[in-house]
Amino acid sequence: MEHVLLVEDEPRLRSIVRDYFSAHGLECDLARDGEEALDLMRDHDYDAILLDILMPHLDGFGVCRAVRENSAVPILFLTALGGEEDMLRGYALGCDDYVTKPFSLAVLLAKTQALIRRSRGTGEAGLLSWGAIGLNTRSRLCRAGGREVKLSPREYDLLLCLMRNRGQVLTREQLLDKVWGLDFEGDDRAVDTRIRSLRAALGDAGKQIKTVFKTGYRLEEV
Amino acid sequence: MEHVLLVEDEPRLRSIVRDYFSAHGLECDLARDGEEALDLMRDHDYDAILLDILMPHLDGFGVCRAVRENSAVPILFLTALGGEEDMLRGYALGCDDYVTKPFSLAVLLAKTQALIRRSRGTGEAGLLSWGAIGLNTRSRLCRAGGREVKLSPREYDLLLCLMRNRGQVLTREQLLDKVWGLDFEGDDRAVDTRIRSLRAALGDAGKQIKTVFKTGYRLEEV
DNA sequence: TCCTATTGTCACAACTCGGACACAACCGCC
DNA sequence: GGCGGTTGTGTCCGAGTTGTGACAATAGGA
Fold first, then answer.
1. What 3-state DSSP class applies to B1?
2. DSSP symbol at B58
3. Whether residue B102 has a cis bond before it, omega within 30° of 0
4. How many CB atoms lie within 10 A of CB A216?
5. Phi, psi (deg, nearest 5) at residue B68
6. How far apart are CA B131 and CA A208, in angstroms?
7. pLDDT tens digits, A153-210
8. Do B74 and A166 touch (CB under 8 A)?
9. DSSP secondary-structure letter at A80?
10. Whole-angstrom distance, CA of residue A173 vs CA of residue B178
11. In contact, A197 and A189? CB cutoff 8 Å
């Protein structure tokens, strides 16, 4: 299930949004202020952050800046400040969308879902492409260098994970958690072996998978 | 240069947006209606589509549906229809954002750029830069003087530490603690050797690393 | 039930990295 | 200017990391 974080100091609004979201299949953690939000983010991997701006202790802009130091998680501002200046400031800090209060819950949900969809690299169509590699998340088919490529289940999941996090280094541990599951009991090197067969299956496009010595693997565009 | 397609039947608005965008580094193709848009998209790979809804021949919703058959390109609706119904319909069809007329050009630009950034998956998150040196903490890639630089793990960690403490002197002991770890059993001079290879790897930008006699090293802007 | 594809493990080969060392160059103090 | 101490430089080799081929266990379909 998708998992988002709502940072908002008004208790009533917090619970309204959470109830609405969970009724539509989005789990929703809550934080009262910026510092609480940063604490939660240290321990969880959220699919999106909904961020009020006017908050005690650390305001939304500050949280956004701190988050963007090392994370590309989708951020949506959610605020009474509707001025152009404020919106531009938000975008300059690397936010993804901006909703002014009062807002429609349905629209907020739609925007959040669109953002999550987009951050995973696919439009509604479920098509993911990067360099010479294309994935269809509906049919689980893969194309590389213009021709169809047959992938085993594990190879597909691994490639999907790399595609969703394209450009960034994923450690073997991260890959084991996300692809094999948290309960996998085996060796790190299982990743290496799967990477090897994936590279072979992709042919020339396999070169897009780079090894980062002592760290992990990264999918590059070329 | 980024390349977007604007689909809009009002001539004046078309050219206003195009001029503003190209002044800010976005090339902007124009289409008068949905059919012209689909024709153009057959021949071009756009980074984003800005789509009016009320148009002759084929309206924006129709274009969106047709595009999503086989493409995940970011789509932003741009319309006078500000009702909740219409927005939700847009999101259901797989659009990424929705702007109601009249709108601010600056905000439209910011939204478009945020979308492109997001769809490339390579946002500005995790970017550190100082003088001619840029470091991306998500990809662990380094740029110096405009070109890609290959760094070994230790070189990368060392540079990251210098960047995070730019402008201030770090003693060898501090560097050993922060980069090598508190349990390192070796010689101070290991730092010198790594600094040397780092300078060499950075080329001209290596001159930003200054030696502070009898003390340590400091990263300067020039 | 058998057959095949899949996948983790292991052992070994190939490779990268980085600290140590020795020596040269340099700095600053007297 | 000389001297002691500090830093830069070139090289080497072992330790650790990743690639590779083979194999056995397992799961899933016919």
1. coil
2. S
3. yes
4. 20
5. -70, -5
6. 30
7. 999 999 999 999 999 999 999 999 999 999 999 999 999 999 999 999 999 999 999 9
8. no
9. S
10. 23
11. no
Work out if A211's Cβ lies within 7 angstroms of strand C: no
Could you report the per-residue pLDDT of A126-139, keeping only the tens digit for each? 889 899 999 999 89
- Return the CATH architecture of domain A127-219: Orthogonal Bundle (1.10)
Strand C within 7 Å of which CB atoms in A 114-153? 150, 152-153
Residue with tokens 């951020």: A75
Out of A87, A92, A123, the one facing B68 most closely (by C-beta) is: A123
Return the CATH number of the domain spanning residue range A2-119.
3.40.50.2300
Q: Is A212 on the interface with B (CB under 8 A)?
A: yes
What amino acid is encoded at B194 in this protein? R
Q: What's domain B2-120's architecture? A: 3-Layer(aba) Sandwich (3.40)
| Bridge partners (DSSP) listed for residue A26 | A2
CA B70 and chain centroid, separation: 25
For chain A, what are the domain ranges?
2-119, 127-219
A105 contact partners, CB below 8 Å, separation of at least 6 = A16, A17, A20
C-alpha A74: how far from chain center = 7
Q: Do B144 and B203 touch, CB atoms closer than 8 A? A: yes
Confidence of residue A70 (pLDDT cuts 50, 70, 90): confident
pTM: 0.89
Q: How many CB pairs below 8 Å do chains A and B form together?
A: 121
